[in-house]
Design goal:
Distance between the termini: 47 Å
Shape: globular
Strand content: 15-25%
Number of strands: 11
Strand order of the largest sheet: 8-7-6-9-10-11
Number of helices: 13
Structural class: alpha/beta
């Protein structure tokens, strides 16, 4: 049995975009044992993936001590393949027959899916999770959504992100929800609001200013149930985030709002996806003198609600 080590990202979005690697390795060697390294958040989803046999949760620690921890867990094994999707130095200090190391290239405009595929000399390793729904025990909200689906069209909204600069103002999400619900196309809509416990304070304002039909899932369930709920929905709208990439992976029509990030490299992957971009480039939004990512507000203020609504309506028609 071949032993495969895949070192993936700490972030959910990057793990999802490169998830096709797990399928490729499994197809290449069906009887292999795949050990998958990722951060705490993505581990809560990838533990239900049939293409993964073992997960090592790598939590960031001060002075990069987490890499020493990972080395200790992996050095005393002989690996057939080491696949390093983070381009870290640790890959060179492990015993392995073959190494596949992904390196970020600032000069490349290719999407991350295409760039990762190239390390295996493949054109496209499509994001993929062979998800085992039977292992998901928490399905209370999923069952509620299925009941609502009999009378409504479910739209999932993710109004947050991992950095304040990438967050479209919550007031604009509220206005967008009102306009969508008043349109003839979406008059039967029910909006499922998703986000983590840490994002609860930010998103809670949405429920105070909006009287539409909203189902609050913020901090109330796990990624696995959210993924299954997305599969029941008609549309996803959110900021550039891991939840946006999760929606694209669930094959729901996905709309992502982009400002200070490169939509060419990180747009939601798939045919039923749309990236709505700020009129300013990410270089213009972040390239000015004195820019401090730790002391900044939303960089998404140039994206107008009516513009987003028009783009969404055209997207749905197609």
């Amino acid at each position: 049995m071949k032993k495969i080590l895949i070192i993936s990202s700490n972030r959910l979005g990057d793990c999802l975009l490169t998830s096709g690697v797990c399928k490729y390795i499994r197809d290449l060697s069906p009887k292999s044992h795949i050990t998958f390294v990722c951060g705490p958040m993505p581990s809560k989803l990838f533990e239900f993936c049939k293409n993964i046999d073992e997960i090592i949760v790598l939590k960031k620690r001060k002075k990069s001590i987490h890499w020493i921890y990972l080395w200790f867990l992996t050095f005393f094994k002989k690996w057939d393949y080491v696949v390093d999707l983070r381009g870290s130095a640790i890959s060179y200090f492990l015993i392995s027959n073959r190494r596949f190391i992904f390196r970020q290239k600032k000069t490349s405009d290719d999407h991350i899916v295409q760039r990762v595929s190239k390390i295996f000399n493949k054109k496209k390793l499509e994001p993929f999770i062979n998800f085992n729904e039977n292992l998901v025990l928490k399905k209370y909200h999923l069952n509620n959504i299925k009941k609502l689906k009999a009378r409504h069209e479910i739209i999932v909204i993710a109004p947050s992100a991992n950095w304040v600069g990438k967050i479209w103002p919550i007031e604009r999400f509220s206005e967008l929800i009102d306009k969508i619900q008043k349109s003839k196309k979406f008059k039967k809509s029910y909006f499922v609001i998703v986000g983590s416990q840490e994002e609860k304070a930010h998103i809670s304002k949405l429920f105070r200013i909006n009287n539409s039909l909203l189902y609050n899932l913020v901090g109330k369930t796990n990624l696995a149930e959210i993924f299954l709920i997305m599969k029941e929905s008609k549309l996803f709208i959110g900021n550039d985030s891991g939840l946006m990439h999760l929606a694209a992976l669930a094959k729901v029509p996905t709309v992502g709002l982009f400002g200070p990030s490169d939509s060419k490299k990180y747009h939601p992957w798939g045919e039923k996806t749309l990236a709505i971009k700020s009129p300013k480039t990410y270089q213009q939004l972040m390239g000015f003198k004195g820019f401090d990512p730790k002391n900044i507000g939303s960089l998404m203020l140039d994206i107008d609600v009516n513009y987003v609504l028009k783009k969404i309506m055209n997207f749905i028609k197609k």
